[in-house]
Amino acid sequence: MTTIPVGTDLKTLNITLQKARTWDREVIGNNFAEEESNQITMEELFNGKRVAVVGMPAPFTGTCTNAHFPAYKVLQDDFLKSVDELVIYTVSDPYAHYSWAEKMGNDFNKITFLADPECEFAKEFGLDQDLKFASLGKRSSRFSMFVDDGIVKVFNLVDLVNEGTAAEDAENLLKLVEGDQKLMDPVMGAHVVLGKVEGLWC
């Protein structure tokens, strides 16, 4: 089972993510991925900051919408007492990612939405998966992690299907970030949250 090993320095990755945003109908060039205001590097995201990152397979899908994001939304203020930024990551275009966040009533001042259209970050660590059976194509595994100045301190691989474990992930990560819980797998260097429920992996 693939994880991001604890101790990995994410600042060294030559990967950029796209900021969730609306489509600019007036100036088409403003939508381009290479526009500096549209992208964020790993250095920019993590340097000198404590960041909680939550990976979800896709916007507007079942478990992501009904369980995983809502749990983080409920605890967003608690997270922001311990981290500088709380990020929701998906393999998606930035426009669908933004619309999904808006639909769920996200406060962009509290939770940042970042998209990875080419699945680069997920592929770097083997977290990509083929969900073509659900017409979703290449997507990310479900995960959460705590990163301090670019160094991965906690990595949780979360079951794709089970809404219960997805909902519990936010509380589990918060406890680990706050230092109230130390559930580290001695072999994998990761806290793994898994379930056995059949259904759509999203």
Could you characterize what this model shows?
With 202 residues, the chain is α/β, with parallel strands linked by helices. It has a single domain, classed as Glutaredoxin. 26% of the residues lie in helices and 24% in strands. The chain contains 6 helices and 10 strands. The protein has helices spanning 42-46, 62-74, 76-79, 94-103, 120-124, 163-178, and strands at residues 16-19, 39-41, 50-56, 85-90, 111-115, 128-130, 138-140, 143-148, 151-158, 191-193. The strands form 2 sheets. The protein has an 8-stranded mixed β-sheet. Strands 6-7 form a two-stranded antiparallel ribbon. Helix 2 packs parallel to helix 6 (163-178). It is globular and about 45 Å long. The two termini are 18 Å apart. 41% of the residues are buried. Residues 180-202 have low confidence and may be disordered.
